[in-house]
Amino acid sequence: MTEVLDTQTRVAHGAPPERTKIQIVPLKGLPFAGAALVLVTVAIATNWTWLLMFAHVAGGGLWTAIDLFVGLVIGPILGRLSIPARAEFSAKFMPAMVIIMPTLVTMNLGSGFQLARKLGNLSPSSPNHAWIIASMIVVGIMATIALGILEPANIAVLFEMNKPVPNGERIGRLMKRFIYTAGITGIMQVATLVIMTRIATQ
Amino acid sequence: MSAELNPSGDRPFPPVAWLTTGALALVVVGGIVMASYAPRKAPLGLAEALLALAAVLLVSVVVIFARLKDFAWSTFATVFKWALLAYVIEAGIIEFAFVRNHVSGASLVIISGMLVVFGVSVPTTIAFTAARFAD
User: Is ipTM over 0.90?
Assistant: First the structure.
């Protein structure tokens, strides 16, 4: 009861509410990321077509879907939320992205090169050769944007939120960078869908 | 390396993130050139030039760091070491895929160099962005 009164008094006097520290890398997620990386390593080592295809399709499918969803659905919603709501959502959402995205990208790229070579798609005589090169270019642009702009902004936001007095203007600026780049990679993933479905049906 | 604040209240810093992202972009282009020729031997001249240019950008970052005053080095080190671990694992798996697919000799050396640039540039960008805003 005393505790309740004390809280009420603090709220009444406008004292800042206590914030829980954000875990920037969620440790609970690491075993799952580790298992996924072991899976892709086994796929490459054994050269097992099904496992390579599984790692490539599962990693790539989730990467594309998450990029599209975050870039074209979550991003615009996030941009319209109030700053406190945006901060609360980001504190839960962004640490998960720190683990999920690099894991999916590694699964996809590690198995993708070997699969393309094994299925003969890299060969210059293959009808898929040009599409494979196109997919590499699209992935290269997305990777540069994601690793050079999006992910650093994501981590910087989490560090800023963990400060005793976060700079709202700075978080807003970094979040804008996150939202715009997520939108660009989301749109570019449409090109990935076109390319991959062309490759699968030629 | 002025300590003056810009209009948004942040201290201006040299363009470290642009340089490291530039290095990343160069090795990504080099990687595409190399991979697009597989299983044939890729012409190494262009890939070598791109790798050399990326290395120059990373060396210029080291020079900038050596001159940087009043920087949150502890935040930088904390973020850098964990990001480096993550991206070394990622680069290692990609390297393994190339080795497993019989890439060897000079091509493998260049690809390994590109993966080193990749494994160093991304953690540097992330750690610098986090540390530049640390108070």
Answer: no
